[in-house]
Structures are given as C-alpha cells and as structure tokens.
Specification:
- The complex is a heterodimer of chains A (243) and B (186).
- Chain A is α+β, with helices and mostly antiparallel strands and 243 residues long.
- Chain A folds into two domains: 30 residues, no CATH class; 193 residues, no CATH class.
- Chain A is built from four helices and 15 strands.
- An eight-stranded antiparallel β-sheet of chain A has the order 5-6-7-8-15-14-11-10, with helices on one face.
- With 186 residues, chain B is an all-alpha fold.
- Chain B folds into two domains: 84 residues, RNA polymerase sigma factor, region 2, helix turn helix motif (Rna Polymerase Sigma Factor, Chain: A); 72 residues, Orthogonal Bundle (Arc Repressor Mutant, subunit A).
- Chain B contains eight helices and no strands.
- In chain B, helix 6 crosses helix 8.
- Classes of the chains: A alpha+beta (243), B mainly alpha (186).
- The interface between A and B is large, with 48 and 68 residues.
C-alpha cells in the first residue's frame, strides 16, 4: 500500500471517535416496543424549495394502503417507473418540500456527476439555479427556473440506473413521444409525484408536483425530467435544446 | 450441553423470522463499525448515535430484502450511511474530524524520540486538515476506504456508488490530498 494510503489508515486508527454507545440495548427496546422508524424527509435548510401546490396528495408507493389504492398497471422509462393508482394517498403537508442537494455552478455539477450533464440552450430561458445531490448513484443535477417560492420550470437529470419512481393517478395522461435525446413519456393532467429509493430500499418522498406537467426522457444512459406548467410542444422544445 | 454459537447466516435467518434476540447479536457485532461510519459521515456524536440506531431498526424491518449469501456488513453500513447523510444534510454542516489527544502517530514501531514523534504528529494533523478540506463526495470515499478500512467493494455498497465511481473519487481525493500536503510542506 502506498505511503499516503498507509498514512490515512493510521490516521483512521488515531481519530477521536466518541465511545460507541450501547446501540444493541436501545435497538432491542425499540423493537420490543414495536417502534418502526419514521421515513425521514429529505431536507436541507439552505435548499429546501417550498412547493407552490400543497394540495397535491402524495405518498410512497410502498406505503399506499391496499384498500385505497390498486395498482392497475405499471411500466418504466429509463430510471423512472410509472404506476397508475386509482387514488393518490395523502401525505403530511410538511412533505411538500423539494430537496435538490447543494447549490452549485454548472461547471461543478458537470465535475461531480458521473455522466455528461446537458444544459438547455433555448432562447428566452433565464439562468437557472443549479443543484447537485448524491444519491442517487452518479448524482442528480437540477435546474430551477423562477423564484424559490414559485418555481416555473424544473429540469432534472440522473443516471438511468437510478431508481426514481413516479406515482400517477388514473386520470393522468401518459403518452409516449420521441425526441432527439431519446425515448420519452409525457405526463399531463392530475397530480403526479416523485419518489426516491434510498440505500435501505425504502421509498422516500422527494418531490411533489412542482409546477405542472412533466416530460421524462431516457437517452444516452441518462434520464431527463422536464416539469413545467407548459404543454407538450414547449416541453419538447426544451428537451431538443439540451446540449 | 452447550450448543455451538450460531453463525451470522443463521442469526440473519432467525432475525428475518422476527427473532429479536438473534438480531440483537448482530447489532452487537456491528454496532462499533456502524457508529464509526455514522460519525465519519455526520461529524457529530449525537447525530451518529441517532443515525446508527435508526438504521439498525430500519434494517430489522428491511431484512426480508436482504439477499441470502450477500455480505451483511456493507448492507447494514449502506443503511447507516444513508441515515447519517440525511442527518448531515439537515444540519447543513461540514464534517470536521479530530485526532485523539494521546494519538500515537508511529504505532507499531520502536519508541521514537520526542522530536520524531512531534514531526509525525504534525504530519498527521496536516493530513487530517487536508481530509477535512476535501469535497464531500471525495471525503466520504476516503473515509470509508481508508479511515474505516472498508474494501473498495464495501465502500461502493456503503455509499451506494458504482465501483468505478469509488475508484475515480478515490483517485481525485488522493491527488488533492497530495497537493495539499505538498503545499503544507513547502
């Protein structure tokens, strides 16, 4: 092992760790009391964006009571799985927040992501606020346009192997469309909500319907998600401008 | 007659069927590495304890998804790391690690002179400062791979990364550490 790596191992052995608490006792007590862990909300003070539409009902697919929600059909596009349910479950209001990660420059996002990060080169679009978060594996880059309180457009990209889930109500329109970037699906109509599968395999709420309809595209090993209160043609123009 | 101790696979199988005593033995076996992992990722003892405790509770209910024959340690550490990173994000702070006061920078060798010890101690402090200054994603892979002495594969599973990503982040992290140490030596 080279010298620097050996020095790091030695450093690890000399770190000032607090004494290990009696976790086995505490865990045993919680299990005996039947405590299940609450699903943590993915928040960060500096970058939590309040959703404009709090009335959106959302919840993790795994938490949907069978009596209230029947999965009628499902299919997948890239790293997104779409499930039809008869009724979207309710979710606490506090969950209506969007965790996008660290605020970064485009150059930093491109440096940190494990794939080629595209940027929309469309005349008329303002400069977005750019965020990076990891997980999902490979990182997720988000462009937010408009104010934090009322975003107008959200563009996200992540490695297609990621595991984002989208839950849609039965009346949401779902159409397959083709774009220069790759195969895609257009979601329009009733609210749809986005979920992230954490490292433990638990579904965590990541974003609700932020601003409107959504175009989800898979191409070049990356999934792109364009969400705005716009129609399909405009979303496709944005998708086609990704460079 | 005293029976043989149960193997880890047997304990896992029993825990999967709701045996909390069997699971307690697994928690006891892994609580040290779990807590240290959480501490390196949160930089805070209280957060690390909460993260590790929640992770073990969550893992118990997720055991049905644990694949028979897979390595338990990285699977558990992955849950711990996720809990820890969520807490660190919520706190919005950087991780700043510290050395033990009685740190023995030349452990294993013959008793060094005070001057040699002082120099080695300064080098460790410089290395720690450089680790603390690493970008988060590089700091995390360096911490798992070297400070916790996980294998590359375990590091990948723990942090939910592809192995290639671990390699590239380690490479970038080590290069940055070398640069920092050259600056501090100059």
């Amino acid at each position: 092992m080279p010298e620097l790596e050996r020095a790091l191992v030695t450093l690890g052995q000399n770190l000032d760790y607090p004494a290990t608490p009696n976790l086995s006792g505490a865990v045993a007590r919680r299990l005996a009391e039947g405590h299940r862990p609450s699903r943590p909300l993915l928040r960060r003070r500096s970058l939590v964006v309040a959703l404009a539409i709090l009335a959106v009902a959302a919840g993790a697919a795994m938490a949907v009571p069978q009596a209230r929600s029947t999965i009628l059909e499902w299919f997948g596009v890239g790293g997104v799985t779409i499930r039809y349910v008869e009724e979207l479950p309710e979710v606490p209001k506090a969950s209506s927040e969007l965790d996008l990660g660290d605020r970064v420059s485009l150059a930093e996002a491109r440096r940190r992501a494990d794939y080629d990060v595209l940027f929309p080169e469309l005349e008329g679009l303002d400069r977005p606020r750019i965020y990076f978060r990891d997980p999902p594996a490979g990182g997720m880059v988000s462009y937010v346009y408009g104010s934090e309180a009322a975003p107008k457009l959200l563009i996200q990209q992540f490695a297609a192997g990621g595991v984002l889930k989208k839950l849609v109500a039965g009346a949401t329109e779902v159409d397959f469309v083709s774009t220069r970037t790759g195969s895609s699906v257009w979601l329009r109509g009733q609210p749809h909500d986005l979920f992230f599968l954490d490292a433990s395999g638990e579904y965590q709420y990541q974003a609700g319907r932020l601003v409107g309809n959504a175009l989800v595209i898979e191409g070049r090993g990356v999934t792109y998600r364009i969400e705005a209160d716009i129609e399909r043609g405009e979303a496709l123009r944005i998708a086609e401008s990704l460079r | 007659m005293v029976g043989r101790p149960l193997s880890e696979a047997e304990l896992v199988e029993r825990a999967k069927h709701g045996d909390q005593d069997a699971y307690g033995e697994l928690v006891h076996a892994y609580q040290g590495i779990a807590f240290r992992t959480a501490y390196l990722l949160t930089g805070n003892g209280a957060d690390a304890e909460d993260a590790a405790q929640d992770a073990f509770v969550k893992a118990f209910y997720a055991l049905s998804r644990f694949r028979a024959g897979a390595e338990l340690r990285p699977w558990l550490l992955q849950i711990v790391a996720n809990e820890a990173r969520n807490r660190r994000r919520s706190a919005g702070r950087r991780v700043n690690l510290a050395l033990r006061v009685e740190a023995d920078p030349l452990s294993g060798g013959a008793a060094p002179s005070p001057e040699v010890n002082l120099l080695a101690g300064e080098r460790q402090s410089a290395l720690l400062a450089a680790v603390n200054a690493l970008p988060e994603e590089q700091q995390q892979v360096v911490a798992c791979r070297y400070l916790l002495e996980l294998t590359e594969e375990e590091t990948a599973v723990t942090l939910g990364l592809r192995r290639g990503t671990v390699k590239s982040r380690l490479s970038r992290g080590l290069a940055r550490l070398r640069e920092q140490l050259e600056v501090s030596d100059a």
